[in-house]
Amino acid sequence: MRPAFRPQDIPDLSGKVFFITGGTAGLGAATALELAKQNAARIYISGRNAQAASSVIEQIRSVSKTNVTFIKCDLASLSSVKDAATDFLSKETRLDVLLCSAGIMATDPGLTRDGYEIQFGTNHLGHAMLIRHLLPLLQATSDDREGGVDARIVILTSLGFKMAAFGTSGILFDELKTTQDKGFMWSWFRYGQSKLANLLYAKELARRYPGITSVSIHPGVIRTGLVEGMGAVKRWFVYVSNVGKMVSLEEGAYNSLWATTTSKEKVANGAFYEPVGKLGGLDSRAKDEGLAGELWEWTQKVLDEYDS
């Protein structure tokens, strides 16, 4: 049976510009490679490791003439994110797709350089800062369109959003400037909190900026550095809870590729998609418009402090 989506189904991407966070490895790199094969004009990949970026760029150059550029960016540092946005904006006059692909999972307790819980700060706040600074260019690009694919923001979340601390709203706003170190399972609760934020932020972006298509996606459970870099007990938890469900890195990129390239008519603004291109199920917290609004206001207040 023919699969529902294949990379070769991607339309020609000539003239289109992409920015991919975490594009130096894993899903981001796999996505960049396939976009380049379909003639994307320019792809910018961000991350902390210039050497890893060079390897990805060389791989892409071996199969495509797409211009690929590395933008240094540490999502755990809001000043680094601002610098990355400034660097990108000095180079480009358009942006078709911002793919927020980078992230960390079930890490030990810690804080970002700005003093926020490390998973929330990296997975949500860092991307929110980047989105804020690139929104005007996304809007300008979308305004220039005459039909075709609109400008998009695609944010990777996870079914892990359901693991946000049970019995709470899902986001512990009063504790986001602490490590939330409350025991073993809290590494997963903190992860779920950040992934819930990713999903809600995409919904709120769609509501506030309807001229840009903003969606969140679950890539599937994949053997990437996120899993392989974990301790033995956490790896065991992932493998046992996902027996028969894990997919290859290449397949894991399919939902990102679908969300960034499929026709506008097939994408519901603000929606959450599971692989591939299927509307995902949401629990009560992921449907909570009040929580989405609270997250938006909290986030803007934090970003305002660093942009003042």
Shape: globular
**Would you identify the CATH architecture?**
3-Layer(aba) Sandwich
Task: Name the strands of the widest sheet in spatial order.
Answer: 3-2-1-4-5-6-7-8
Q: Compute the number of structural domains.
A: 1
Compute the CA-based radius of gyration: 18 Å
Series of secondary-structure elements, N-terminal to C-terminal: EHEHEHEHEHEHHHHEEH
How is the topology of this model organized?
Layout: E1 17-21, H1 26-37, E2 42-47, H2 50-61, E3 67-72, H3 78-91, E4 97-100, H4 118-143, E5 152-156, H5 186-208, E6 213-217, H6 225-228, H7 232-241, H8 249-252, H9 254-261, E7 272-274, E8 278-279, H10 289-307
Parallel strand pairs: 1-2, 1-4, 2-3, 4-5, 5-6, 6-7
Antiparallel strand pairs: 7-8
Task: Give a verbal description of the structure.
By secondary structure, the protein is an alpha/beta fold. The protein has a single domain (7-307), classed as Rossmann fold (3-Layer(aba) Sandwich). 43% of the residues lie in helices and 12% in strands. It has helices at residues 26-37, 50-61, 78-91, 118-143, 186-208, 225-228, 232-241, 249-252, 254-261, 289-307, and strands at residues 17-21, 42-47, 67-72, 97-100, 152-156, 213-217, 272-274, 278-279. Strand 7 (272-274) and strand 8 form a beta hairpin. The radius of gyration is 18 Å and the shape is globular. Residues 232-244 have low confidence and may be disordered.
